[in-house]
Amino acid sequence: MKTSIGAKNIIFPTPVFIVGTYGEEGKPNAMNVAWAGICGSSPPSIGIAIREQRCTYKNIMNRKAFTINIPSEIYIKEADYFDLVSGNKTDKFSDTGLTPIQSDKVDASYIEEFPFNAECELIETLQIGEHTLFVGQIIDIKVDADCIDKNDLPDIEKIKPLLFDPAAIRYNTVGKIAGKAFSIGKRILSHDN
C-alpha cells in the first residue's frame, strides 16, 4: 500500500553540484545547487535551477557561462558552506581556502580541489515559478587523473561525490555497486532471473 505525501520537491538522489561563475569585476563565485542534472545528450547539456536573487543567477546571465564542480566527500564542509552565504557579501574562496581556476573553454571559474569539473556555455533559460532553469552545453570536462578508470572515464568510486537527500536535509555518499546498467535487465529477456 502506498501513502500519498503530496507534491514536494523530493527525488532521490539529487546531486551536489557547485556552480562556478565570475561576477561583473571578474570575482570568482561558487554556489551549491541540488536542483540539477543532465538534460540532453546531443549536445551534452546540464540543467540547473537558480532563484533570481542569487548572485550566481546574475553572473550566469551576464557571462553566459558556468562550471559544474563535483566535490568529493572530503569537501562536505566547503560544499555546504557554498550554500550558506552569498557571494554578494563574502569571498567564498578566501573563506574556504579553495582555489578558483579560469576555465579554458568558457567565461567561468572551476574549483581546482574538486575532482570533476564541467565547463558549460549557456544555451537556454526557462522560467519555472521562482526558479530559472539554466541549460548549459558541456564544452569540456576535466577530471583529476587519479579519478580516471581503465577506460579513460571518470570513476564514481574514486571521485566519491556527495549526494543530497532533500527529504531528510542531509548529505549521503555513494554506496555499493548494484549491477551493470544496460546489461542486468537482459536477464528478463533471457528469462534468467
From TrEMBL:
GO MF term list: FMN binding; oxidoreductase activity, acting on the CH-NH group of donors, NAD or NADP as acceptor
UniProt KW Flavoprotein keyword: yes
Organism superkingdom: Bacteria
Keyword annotations: Flavoprotein
Gene3D superfamilies reported for this sequence: Electron Transport, Fmn-binding Protein, Chain A (2.30.110.10)
Family of this protein: Belongs to the flavoredoxin family.
Protein name, per record: Flavoredoxin
InterPro entries reported for this sequence: Flavin_Rdtase-like_dom, Flavoredoxin, Split_barrel_FMN-bd
Alphabetized SMART domains for the sequence: Flavin_Reduct (SM00903)
Entries under SUPFAM superfamilies matching the protein: FMN-binding split barrel (SSF50475)
Record-annotated Flavin reductase like domain positions: 12-149
Cofactor entry: FMN
Keyword Protein biosynthesis: no
